[in-house]
Amino acid sequence: MITTLHTEWTVADICQGFVYNEYEGKGLFGLSGKLVIQPEYQRNYIYADGKKDVAVVQSLLNEYPLGLIYFVKVSEDKYEVLDGQQRITSFGRFVTGKFAIPGANGVPQYFSGLAEDLRERILSAKLTIYVCEGEESEIKAWFKTINIAGVPLNEQELSNAIHSGPFVTKAKEEFSNSQNANVQKWSAYIAGDVLRQDFLRTALKWVSRGDIDGYMSRHRYDDNINELRAYFSSVIDWISSIFEETSKYMRGLEWGELYEKYHRQAYDSKAVSQKVRELMVDEAVNDYKGVYEYVLGGCQDTRLLNIRLFDDRTKKRVYLKQTEQAKAKRISNCPLCVMADGADKSRIWKEGEMDADHVSAWSRGGATDEANCQMLCKTHNRVKGNR
Ligand SMILES: [Zn+2]
Description:
The structure is a single chain. By secondary structure, this protein is α+β, with helices and mostly antiparallel strands. The protein contains 17 helices and eleven strands. Helices cover 41% and strands 13% of the residues. It has a seven-stranded mixed sheet with strand order 1-9-5-6-4-3-2. The chain is elongated and about 95 Å long. It binds zinc ion (ZN). Zinc ion binds next to helix 16, strand 11 and helix 17.
């Protein structure tokens, strides 16, 4: 790989013919058409938050260096941005009037409204640009190792770079496009940021059963994403057909795994949704995220709900009462030890050797109160298990 340092290009040069695609949220071209700002392996523009993009402009106004920028030379007089796309898109958008910076007294200032010397200061700022020439694989391997100023690439952005090709391009159009009308619906079930590839990653994780890079590698040169799209829709449709309501606790659950495990079972969505509503207001339930799997599994595994346990005062009172009665009858203070009729049938356990148990299981309507609490020795409590 050969690198050549360029210090002669200015912000004005790069902004010649700057095109920003509002729909896809990316800067496309600059340098009089000679520069591709967002090659397919690049991430979406994520600086448009009123902070990072403003910081880029402020740096130029303060005459601070913007840091190193890397271009790849793809042919004679044609370049792609390897690193620096966020910074270039920020000043390109500012110079073309796409956003304002906060001026004195908080009045928004667009580029066209700046004093002439300030406009000139921005346009004449010289950039430090390395132009790299080499094999695609060589450049991408290097791209993986350089740390992008500010926001490092996340896992999926790296995977997109490594497996770049028609499949990634199509997959990003569908799953990392904030203008896609379905994103709203999907975000009820999927956590994260569509522009940072969290939805794409989820879709790939589901269809690949977790082998994301393997899947991307096998499908790298596919000219369609039919399987990815179909599987993803099946999961989403399955969730929305079973659960009538959405809640914030649904977001980011392992829906792909739940789908694989339960989608062959029939559910009555009315009854399921009713059960979810009840559990969501049940004071004994501590883990609302576990409610969905608990219900899908037929309300068996109460561990998923992290059921609230008896408090220490209740346990102490029950322990003292139980132990006093046991001593009077010369039997064990663990009722199950008495029933087992073994060596421990008259053993008095210490408080620390016992655990609280629901006499009538919580899952069958038993309350978490003193009247429904009994102390069992640790062995028997573990054997009885269910709450
Ligand atoms: Zn016992």
